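dumping this here before i forget
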Amino acid sequence: MHYSFDIERGNFADAGQASSSVKRLLKQLGVAPPNIKRTVVALFEAEINAIAHAYGGKIDVDIDDGKIVMVVADQGPGIPNLDLAMQEGWSTASPQVREMGYGAGMGLPNIRKNTDELKIDTEVGVGTTVTMTVYFA
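structure:
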């Protein structure tokens, strides 16, 4: 099964729609609750990062053979220092994003903790693609 969602820059009103849709679908498919939780946390964090930091993008989700693969690809500034970005508490979020309760610097670390496989491709001035896999079996 394949699903796609668009990411609109700065649209926090719609933040979490993709992860909520995936959560409903995984429940319907009978996926175990701990795996649903890990999937939704990872996808939500990636979705918020793209909304907060990028200029738009797309989420592609594929579910098959006991796993889910989620690809969040954005057009944006890219991540200048991925090692720093992977550290808990490190953030480049704007004051406005922080005022909304986001930007605590836990996005990428939470994604890493909740996925079985994580690949991040980023290029400054071009964008970032985060590929996350969670196995259900």
